[in-house]
Amino acid sequence: MSIHIQLLTKDVVNQKLLNEILELWNENAIETADCELGESERKAIQEQLEQYIESKYGAIYIATNENNEMIGFGLASIKKDFIYDMNYGQIDEVYVVPVYRRQKIAKRLVDDLVNWFNDEHDTTVVNVYVDLENDLALNFWEGIGLEKEFFMLSNN
């Protein structure tokens, strides 16, 4: 099995690729939140994807199989910490279709995102937000070396 990881850039991205990411994002929403994306959510995600491709502060990597079918993606962005006056990397989303899990594809996506942080933006700190009830995700992130730093509280 041959898996290819690719950074999406302005010269390679097209609407078909963006639609494929949206479909995988919808699968993720169904799997983790038991709901499908609505039309307004799809539009907002599409806009976010387009902004990441246009900006030097956002990155989208996709994973494809030997048949050139998209089987996963990862999104990341550079954020500014004004307290410490430093930039840090934030991994915003990583998803691999279930049949391709446990084959180190998500790890490869994350490695490429972290390399993008380091190479393009000289960042050493990487953050990711994970739902405390998502044991699969928590185990993945801790398994690749990230540690719980603090809990974020919200009113929803």
Structure overview:
Helices cover 39% and strands 24% of the residues. With 156 residues, the protein is an alpha+beta fold. The protein has one domain: Gcn5-related N-acetyltransferase (GNAT) (Aminopeptidase, 3-Layer(aba) Sandwich). Helix 1 (15-33) packs across helix 2. It starts with a strand and ends in a 13-residue tail after the last helix. The mean pLDDT is 91.
Q: Specify the number of helices.
A: 4
Oligomer: single chain
Relevant CATH superfamily: Gcn5-related N-acetyltransferase (GNAT)
Q: What does the radius of gyration come to?
A: 15 Å
Task: Give the SSE map.
Elements: E1 4-7, H1 15-33, H2 39-54, E2 58-64, E3 70-81, E4 86-96, H3 105-121, E5 126-128, H4 135-143
Parallel strand pairs: 4-5
Antiparallel strand pairs: 1-2, 2-3, 3-4
Kindly list the characteristics that best describe this protein.
156 residues; five-stranded mixed beta sheet; 5 strands; globular
Write a concise synopsis of the structure shown.
This protein has 156 residues and is an alpha+beta fold. Helices cover 39% and strands 24% of the residues. The protein has four helices and five strands.
